[in-house]
Each structure stands twice: as C-alpha cells, then as structure tokens.
Amino acid sequence: MIRLLRLSRLPCPVGLLRLLCLAVLLVVTSASPAAAHDVRAGADLRIAQTIAGAELTLVIKATTRVPGPLRVEVIGFPSAPALDLRLRSTADGRVTHGTAAPRRPAQFRVEETGPHELTVGAGGETAVIPFRVLVDRGSGWEFLIYGGLFVAGLLLVGGLLTGAFNRRGRPAFVVTAVAAAGISVAALIVVLEPWLPTGPPDGAEPRPTGSVLGRPYVQRVVTTVPARPVAGEEFVTRVELFDGSTGRPVDDLAVHHEAMAHLVVTSEDGRYFRHVHPLRAAPGRLEVRLRADRPGRYLAYVELERTDSGGQLLTGSFTVAGPAKPTPSPGPGVQDAAAGTVTVTPAVPRAGRPATVEVVTNGTPRPWLGMAGHLIVRAEDGEFLGHVHEMGTPGGRLRFTFGFPAPGRYFAWAQYATDRGITTVPFTVEVPR
Amino acid sequence: MIQAKGAKGLRGLGGLVLAGLLAVIVAAFVVARSSGGDPVTTAGTRYAVTVTADRNTIDVRLGRGEADTVTVAAVMPAMGHAMPEVTARKTDPGHFVAEGDLFSMGGGWELSVRLTGPPGEETITFTTLVTD
Known about the structure:
By secondary structure, chain A is α+β, with helices and mostly antiparallel strands. Chain A is built from four helices and 25 strands. In chain B, a hairpin with a 2-residue loop joins strand 6 and strand 7 (95-99).
C-alpha cells in the first residue's frame, strides 16, 4: 500500500517524457541553409575555372580536422596547366604556397577553421577564391546523453550499495528513480537527436538563426579590355557585379552548378559559342579571356546565384571590330564537333509544350559541372536564354526536356565532357506559330 | 505521518530533478544556438583587425599595422540595407571605437573597415552578427 502510494507520487518517466517532449518541441527550429564556398567533412568544394586557355575544375577536398591537411586537386577537360596556388588564412594572415596539376594534387596545412583565400595563377591570369574551412563540432545534446548515462551508472552503483547496507527502502528507491530519469533522458535524446537543433560548425560565417532567404538583385556592367576587341586577338571580358540596393560590389556568390558564374558568349548569328567560367579577379569582378574570329556584335549571358538566393541571369553585349580572322583553336577546352545526332521529339515542337531533345554522344560522358550534359538554348533575337540539364539517361545518349517558350527560331548547343574534352553540338530548332 | 513526509520529500526531489533537467536542456539549447557579439578577427595584407559590434558600438582593435584613421561602412546583404559610413574615434593606440545608432536592425552585417596610416590604405571586409 505504502509502496503504491509512493509510486503514484513519483516524477514518473512518463511525466518526464512529456515535459522533455514539450521542451524539445519548443526548441526545434528549421535548419538554416548552407552558406556558400564551404569545405567541410563530406562536402568538397568544386569550382570550375577557365584559366590559361583551359577548362578545369578545382576541387578543395574536405577536411575532418583542424589543424590538419587540406588537399587541392585539379581536373582538366581534357587537360590543365600546372597551377600556382597560394593559400591564405583571412583570420590570421598565414600564407602557404603550392602547385597543383591533374593527378598531382597540392597538399596544404590549415591551422584553423574559418575564412581562407585560395589564389590560383596560371598563364598570367589570377583568380582569388574565398572559402571557409568548417569542422563539425559535437552537438551539445551528446552532453545530455553521456551525462544521463553517467548519472544513471553512478546512481545504480550507489543504489546497490544503499540496498546492501540500508534495510529501509526509501533511499535506494530514490536513487533508482533518479537513475531511471538519467537513462530516460539519454534514451530520449538518442531517439530525438536527428531533429534537435545543433550549433553551427567551427569556422562558419556568423549568421542569425532563421535567416531570411533572398537578397537584392544584381546589377552588372559588362565590358571588354581593350574596349574595342579585334577579331582574332585575345581580349578580356569583364563582368562587374553591384548590389541593386546598396551599390556595393556583390561578393557573396554561391557555388552554382560547380561555378561562381557561368558565362555564355554567342555571336548574334549563333555561329560563335563559348560557355566559360570567369575568374574572380577582385570582389565583385569576374574576368575571362576570349578570342573571337569574326567582327560583329556578341551577346553575353551570366548565370549566377547569390548566397541565400535563387539563380539570376544577367545580360550584356560587346562589339568585335576588324576583318574576320579564323582562330587556330575554337576556344578554351572546347571542341566543336558535329559529333552527335540530334533528335527533337516531337519533330515540330509546339511553343509552351515540353519537347525532348536527344543527343547521341561520341564517347562516354563524364560528369562536368555536376551533370552528364548541358543544353544551352538561345532565341534567335537573343531575348531568351535557357540552360537545361540532362536528367541521367543510360547509354551513350543525353536526353533533355525543355519547353520552347514562344514560336520562333532557337539556337541550341548541347555540351558534354569525355576524356577528349568538352564536346559542343550546335543545332537549331524551329518552333512554328 | 512517515508516509506523508516521505511522499513530500519525494515530490520535492522530483521537482528538483525536473528543474535540473530543464536547466540542462535550456543550457544546451543556448550553447547550441550561441550567437552574437563575438569578436571577428580578419587579417588584410597591411592591417589585422579584431572587431566587436553591437547595435550602438563598433569596437576595432588593431592586431597588426598602425592606423591613423578607421572608418566603417555597414551593409546588411540579406535586406539590402546600407548605413552611412562612420569614423571611429581613437581611444588608445591601436583601439578605435564608433558609437551611435550604427545598425538599423540586428542580424548578419557585412562591415567594410577602411584603415589609413603609415602602412597605406586598406579596406578589410567581413561578416559579423549584430545582436539587438
């Protein structure tokens, strides 16, 4: 009878569970989105760059401990020059140098988590890539798991001793009850851990919880150096990015399809096409070297994404002067080859309805910019540009589904990478009225 | 009598255990979401600064380089807010403080600290969390 009475007044595990559940419900918050340019365990940072006439992907390998090693690899499409690398910690200013080439990674040592800058140099060109080294710290909840188990273990031994030396049941009972509470807390946290909020990893950018998504639009200025490029001569295409609300340079680009920005440059008639990945020359300034073979007007499209925002497409144009001069090579890492049979289904696509574009590949495609294939579609007048991704078709084929938005003529370029480099398959599509 | 006393003691103990558990949960929650007001150290090529910011004060301590003037421009990228540039007052050698209504709201702010002095001019940009 006494026992029963005591039991009913105990802070029973069910009551504890209820209280804990309530507390947990109060504290559970949605996870904030990942910041840009982070290197952390399980997440390498892959950034495509067009440098020294080569198309390559730079891979900053994930690190699990700091101080510890940091490896930088280079994947060439199909080849890449040796890159001079300089790693600088923005927190303490420490600088280390290295060299990387395909199959010859550079090995650095990072002394602390947080912001770093990797300066990449080749062929007289330089890119500065800001990134953060993050290391996951154990969640605070583990403290509760181990604490609960520790208390339970300690009190169970205490309970045994009390039971052995004390005839009266109360102290032993109390000890057992607290031990049970310890085990309950530990078990509850083990079960609920995936949903519990955790702190940001070490080295993460300071940011408020529950960040607002969406940042102001980007304004761009597209120029060339020299201002009037000449056909056959190399020139620099420069894209300067400014925040539409503050006028400040935009330097918070997220890595979007494995690049800070994708620049598509086409001639007005669609015969010239380049899809390149400009270098970050300075905060808010992207640059890439190009060479055009014929005079005329060229249209530039920049696809990028700000941190915590969606994708944006910026446009610009420039004019190339001088007589036509056929260039010896078609451009950085690109082989223009009519290497694929292109089939559009239905054969006469209708505006606003999905059409399927199938491209037979020459060789086995390997992932490039995170995808097996890319399809760039431009309206003849240049007023529309689409970037379509291949959705994983087995065999030597690429399949894209795309709805041509309005009747008219479209220039299209399907792109994929093989061991021989990047193949571009140009074709046109007529969408009747 | 003994029964009632025992039950009362147990209730008190249970309350204590519960209060302790809640305190642990709240502490873990606060640790897990710890934020705000932390100093941010950033090294430029000429200067290194450690900056602590709250709504009304920006405290700049130089780790490297002797600066004559320190000005701070604040931008909140998430909201598109820009605040007027403020000049920090030199309180001690290597220590500058700006005071006033410096931020329109709490949150993640990008600070551009422009320093001039014998090593030259440099702008150091970083992100910090400003708490209300």
